[in-house]
């Protein structure tokens, strides 16, 4: 091997193994002048294109190495660090995504469990027209069935949303990085940043589809317990009874409408959260205040604010599907077309007030807990 090719390979190895602080240094290591042909082959492997189609200009980003957000320059303009974090061009190790998943699981499981009383009232409003608003439903349930009925369905809620949060948050961070790095490798960092809104949406949808497979059985048991309190004694009894009576179909019968509810919910949730927090941090950066300058409490406050905005958007976008899902799981022989005919447009938004309060509260808390756990686990998020 010629000395020039050895120099080129050394530059490649160094670029993979070191977290470069400057994009120009990264490019220089990958693009020493004497090895054009070898460099073209390397870029072809990264971009999955034939070597003869690859130009001699280095890609804007690599799966293994990326420029520092603080020093990155795109199209002659310095980009804010948070904007680059929202369209990451660097895939992390599996352990990193496992940490994200753990934070999402804890945040989602805790928050959904904490609002079970609100969810019970919301579900009753959706499946019955005997109540006249949230307060009337709460008073009636406590008077006729006891205070403990407001905690009905706590078991399946905690277990189901712990699993859902694990795959949703962990999956979102993985898919966001995967799609961003793919676009950056093929089309450049400019395009990855330009299309980051679409990347957030597709990443959220991809993660939610996987998460819903694990949530659907727990959601079916939860709604059955709330709608018919005498159906079973708890999560285990309800799960076994539903599986025995209706089989896998009964457990996953609500999966299509669940996805119909959760995918728009999650897409709006993550996209609006990213937009809100990016706008906030961008405004701070114009005043020479970076994320590192903020205290943990201040960052949590911004996460809560972004979560409130995200929750409002998520609640509105998924309300019709949530109503259909509640009605569908109430009856073993329910069908979506019949439910839509019976409810009408107005009926689809029954219980909107209670659900909006619940969704905004839990979404803000989820992102606050998620951000806090990220910092405790050493993740810069």
UniProtKB/TrEMBL annotation:
Start-end of each Solcar repeat: 95-178, 195-279, 298-376
Keyword Repeat: yes
SUPFAM superfamilies: Mitochondrial carrier
InterPro entries membership: MCP_dom_sf (IPR023395), MCP_transmembrane (IPR018108), SLC25A3/Pic2/Mir1-like (IPR044677)
GO molecular function, one term: phosphate transmembrane transporter activity
Membrane topology designation: Multi-pass membrane protein
TM region positions: 352-373
Top-level division of the source organism's lineage: Eukaryota
Family: Belongs to the mitochondrial carrier (TC 2.A.29) family.
Name used for this protein in its record: Mitochondrial phosphate carrier protein
Organism lineage: Eukaryota, Rhodophyta, Bangiophyceae, Cyanidiales, Cyanidiaceae
